[in-house]
Amino acid sequence: MAPQISPSILSADFANLAGDVAAISDVADWVHVDVMDNHFVPNLTIGLPVVRALLKHSPLPLDCHLMIEDPDRWAPQFAEAGAQSVTIHAEAAKAPIRTLRTIRAAGARSGLAINPATPVEPYEDILGEIDMLLLMTVEPGFGGQKFLDVVLPKVRRARELIKGRDLPVWLQVDGGVSAETIERCAEAGADVFVAGNAVYGAEDPAEAVQKLRQQAAG
Ligand code: DX5
Ligand code: ZN
């Protein structure tokens, strides 16, 4: 699949979300929305009401990354609200298969995320339940952190597992993805790239997205 870019609005201006989404809407594929509850991660960000509002204003589909406890309760509501992709954390979900199926049944793409130190192999048998596997390349919670190179071998292994099963699962990397690191991620097999600081920290966010895409395409 051609590389896709999902700019994270965690690094955008929270008082001007519609404007910051519009700034990248001609060049990006998704808008990455980081939902944090101050329990699963030590930060508090956006919730369902803001996602509902964004859905009305965003020309791009929303890629909602739920860094929250009890995703089994909340994820279906994001999907029912109209979010086009909903990703839950394996470390937080108590009934991941049921929740992933509920997300799909509501018409959204289902995503499963794992933290840098969580192995991918235990999830091999449920790859058929998901549309996207998200490998965190920083510890979740904050934008602007340093990319963790130690995750790259796992990106490679995940790509092999997906290929081995011949599944159309997208492989997303999130955290510290930038002009310096995106090529290594693409080479390891990632095809969906989240970038917060590298996009919204740039003088021209749209140009930054285009450059990242070119680099990811190799
Ligand atoms: C971190 C979030 C990321 C974050 C990425 O917990 O999940 O999506 O916004 O930001 P950068 O690209 O700045 O590392
Ligand atoms: Zn994220």
TrEMBL record:
<keyword id="KW-0862">Zinc</keyword>
<keyword id="KW-0464">Manganese</keyword>
<feature type="binding site">
    <location>
        <position position="65"/>
    </location>
    <ligand>
        <name>substrate</name>
    </ligand>
</feature>
<feature type="binding site">
    <location>
        <position position="176"/>
    </location>
    <ligand>
        <name>substrate</name>
    </ligand>
</feature>
<feature type="binding site">
    <location>
        <begin position="141"/>
        <end position="144"/>
    </location>
    <ligand>
        <name>substrate</name>
    </ligand>
</feature>
<keyword id="KW-0413">Isomerase</keyword>
<dbReference type="GO" id="GO:0005737">
    <property type="term" value="C:cytoplasm"/>
</dbReference>
<dbReference type="InterPro" id="IPR013785">
    <property type="entry name" value="Aldolase_TIM"/>
</dbReference>
<feature type="binding site">
    <location>
        <position position="8"/>
    </location>
    <ligand>
        <name>substrate</name>
    </ligand>
</feature>
<feature type="binding site">
    <location>
        <position position="34"/>
    </location>
    <ligand>
        <name>a divalent metal cation</name>
    </ligand>
</feature>
<dbReference type="InterPro" id="IPR000056">
    <property type="entry name" value="Ribul_P_3_epim-like"/>
</dbReference>
<dbReference type="InterPro" id="IPR026019">
    <property type="entry name" value="Ribul_P_3_epim"/>
</dbReference>
<feature type="binding site">
    <location>
        <position position="32"/>
    </location>
    <ligand>
        <name>a divalent metal cation</name>
    </ligand>
</feature>
<feature type="binding site">
    <location>
        <position position="174"/>
    </location>
    <ligand>
        <name>a divalent metal cation</name>
    </ligand>
</feature>
<dbReference type="GO" id="GO:0004750">
    <property type="term" value="F:D-ribulose-phosphate 3-epimerase activity"/>
</dbReference>
<keyword id="KW-0119">Carbohydrate metabolism</keyword>
<protein>
    <recommendedName>
        <fullName>Ribulose-phosphate 3-epimerase</fullName>
        <ecNumber>5.1.3.1</ecNumber>
    </recommendedName>
</protein>
<keyword id="KW-0170">Cobalt</keyword>
<comment type="pathway">
    <text>Carbohydrate degradation.</text>
</comment>
<dbReference type="GO" id="GO:0019323">
    <property type="term" value="P:pentose catabolic process"/>
</dbReference>
<feature type="active site" description="Proton acceptor">
    <location>
        <position position="34"/>
    </location>
</feature>
<feature type="binding site">
    <location>
        <begin position="174"/>
        <end position="176"/>
    </location>
    <ligand>
        <name>substrate</name>
    </ligand>
</feature>
<dbReference type="GO" id="GO:0006098">
    <property type="term" value="P:pentose-phosphate shunt"/>
</dbReference>
<feature type="binding site">
    <location>
        <position position="65"/>
    </location>
    <ligand>
        <name>a divalent metal cation</name>
    </ligand>
</feature>
<dbReference type="Pfam" id="PF00834">
    <property type="entry name" value="Ribul_P_3_epim"/>
</dbReference>
<feature type="active site" description="Proton donor">
    <location>
        <position position="174"/>
    </location>
</feature>
<comment type="similarity">
    <text>Belongs to the ribulose-phosphate 3-epimerase family.</text>
</comment>
<dbReference type="InterPro" id="IPR011060">
    <property type="entry name" value="RibuloseP-bd_barrel"/>
</dbReference>
<comment type="function">
    <text>Catalyzes the reversible epimerization of D-ribulose 5-phosphate to D-xylulose 5-phosphate.</text>
</comment>
<keyword id="KW-0479">Metal-binding</keyword>
<dbReference type="GO" id="GO:0046872">
    <property type="term" value="F:metal ion binding"/>
</dbReference>
